[in-house]
Amino acid sequence: MLRIHFSGNDLAGVRMAARPDVLWETILSFHRLRDRRGSVVYREWRSEARIRLGDETRLLAALVPGRGYFPDFLTPPQGILGVDEALDAIRATPPGRIHAELSLIGATRTARAGRPAVPAALRALAEGASEPLGRLVAALRGYHRAAVEPYWSHIQARVEADRAVRGRALLDGGAEELLASLPPMLRWRSPVLEADYPVDRDVHLDGRGLLLQPSFFCRGTPVVLRDPGLPPVLVYPVTHSEAPTVREPGLPSLAKLVGHTRSAVLNAIGDGGTTSELARRAGVSLASASQHAGVLREAGLVATLRHGNAVLHTLTPLGAALLGGAGRTPRETRCYARNGTVTS
After folding, report:
1. Burial of residue 171, with CB atoms counted within 10 A of its CB: 0-12 exposed, 13-18 middle, 19 or more buried
2. Which of 8, 87, 94, 182, CA to CA, is 20 to 30 A from 291?
3. Pairing of strands 273-274, 186-189
């Protein structure tokens, strides 16, 4: 069981990540790559990724076990900024921290010996030399390029749809409503957020608040950092409605996107809305709004997520770019709850 303990100050400091985290998605996707029991939603992605990767995963396989702990330094907060910034942060990790965290990987394997030891495949990295760390950074970049980058627009769309649901819960009822709206494996029992977890773990936020990071490749259970001294983050699974695909402009479904009404519905989505809200904003019937939203979704321009009895639509990066040009992306609402107010 995982138990995250909140104070009043922690509730005021609950916040949603502005976008997917490139390294959380990279590391967690590596779990999905090897998880033969994984959801069918990953089946096609897994086959495509393995073809691109070949045998280029040996170092990552040693560093990220199929189950259990993987080093915290692999997911620095800079992952929210992009792959270059994230890998620069890994490259700057102090050698002492790398050694300490790599020792934890071997702790279970060497429990009978009385003390943890760094696995043999990682000893050169643990010694702090720049060359092994450079190989790790190259391996992460290569894996990300093959297994995550081609699907990034889809990942962004699913995370943005989840953020829209959480943001609406925050606006409707504050931080407690936001926590109560999280996926079913997370249970808000004020002042504690609980989840089934591989080990028994209590996390005390101690006034630092909590960053909520929705993740496309997280599955089954949420993930937290092991080191209690690091800024608290909770990575949790988004709801999957379809398999990840590589979407390119010019797909046949995009040809359906013609006419004033459909363009009006796309524009009406804005920062997110239910089917009823789209109908009202675009001045069309509920049935028409639903039909047009379905075509937009097929074209990869809209992501749809069910929330309670409502269906919530949000723009994908491709949909936002079509509306406002290549430089536009969906507005990044920060969804902070501070002293009972919401800022963006």
Report:
1. middle
2. 182
3. unpaired
pTM of the model: 0.75
List all residues 6 or more positions away from 259 whose beta carbon is below 8 Å from its beta carbon. Answer: none
Angstrom distance (rounded) from CA 109 to CA 295: 52
Q: In this structure, what are the phi and psi dihedrals at residue 247, rounded to the nearest 5 degrees?
A: -100, 130
Highest mean pLDDT among 27-41, 212-226, 307-321: 212-226
Parallel, antiparallel, or unpaired: how do β-strands 186-189 and 223-224 relate?
Answer: unpaired
Euclidean distance between CA atoms 149 and 83, whole angstroms: 10
Element (H, E) at 167: helix 152-180
**How far apart are alpha carbons 149 and 160 in whole angstroms?**
17
210-215 and 14-16 strand pairing? parallel
Cα–Cα distance, 277 to 292 (Å, whole number)? 13
**235: three-class secondary structure by DSSP:** strand
Give CA–CA dist 196/201, Å, rounded: 10
Residue whose pair of structure tokens reads 């990295």 in the numeric block? 125
Which residues have C-beta within 8 Å of that of residue 308, sequence separation ≥ 6?
A: none
Q: Whole-angstrom Cα distance, residue 58 to residue 153? A: 27
Q: Collect all residues with Cβ–Cβ distance below 8 Å to 108 and sequence separation of at least 6.
A: 68
- Span 40-87, pLDDT tens digits: 788 889 888 888 886 668 889 889 987 788 999 999 999 999 999 999
The Cα-based distances of 214 to 39, 204, 211, 269 in angstroms read: 17, 21, 10, 21
DSSP helix/strand/coil, 201: strand
d(CA 213, CA 236): 6
Residue with tokens 């890998």: 87
- Distance, in Å, from the CA atom of 143 to the CA atom of 28, rounded to the nearest integer, reads 12
Q: Which amino acid is at 304?
A: T
